[in-house]
Design brief:
The chain is mainly alpha-helical. It has one domain. Helices cover 68% and strands 6% of the residues. The protein has helices at 4-18, 28-34, 36-45, 49-59, 71-110, 125-131, and strands at residues 19-20, 24-25, 118-119, 122-123. The strands form 2 sheets. Strands 1-2 form a two-stranded antiparallel ribbon. A two-stranded antiparallel sheet has the order 3-4. A hairpin with a 3-residue loop joins β1 and β2. The chain starts with a helix and ends with a helix.
Length: 132
């Protein structure tokens, strides 16, 4: 479980990341994406979304109107980014499955001869033709 100083340090890091040079602000969604682990730790520590919003305000993270982030905005932004992270983690596996299926199908479409078969631990193509 995260300690109080880790939670506070994470809130200060989020506040710092929100600030742009020249007194501008980054979009909340872009900053949340980089700090999803902090939100997980804060939830594990027992902080509510309202607590997190107030903590971020105390650390200097404010919305465009210099007020704390609305709880609904904070919650929905974090939820969306968590869902994006889940989908992104599944993509490589799906791509690998698709690639393997394409390779299998390509072989079936272009193969002129029956596939090679093992016979007695060696490749013996002629023997496999006789067996058919």
């Amino acid at each position: 479980m995260a300690k109080n100083n880790e939670i506070e340090a994470g809130a200060k890091a989020i506040a710092e990341d929100l600030r742009l040079p020249g007194a501008g602000l980054k979009k909340l969604a872009r900053v949340v994406e980089d700090h999803l682990a902090w939100f997980d730790k804060a939830e594990a520590r027992g902080l509510t979304w309202a607590d997190m919003s107030r903590l971020l305000l105390a650390a200097g993270a404010k919305g465009k109107n210099s007020r704390p982030f609305p709880v609904g905005t904070l919650y929905s932004t974090v939820w969306r980014k968590r869902e994006d992270a889940k989908r992104a983690s599944l993509r490589p596996r799906n791509r690998l499955r698709e690639f393997k299926a394409q390779r299998r199908n390509r072989h079936r479409e272009t193969a002129e001869w029956p596939p090679l078969q093992y016979e007695a631990g060696t490749l013996n193509y002629r023997a496999s033709l006789k067996a058919d």
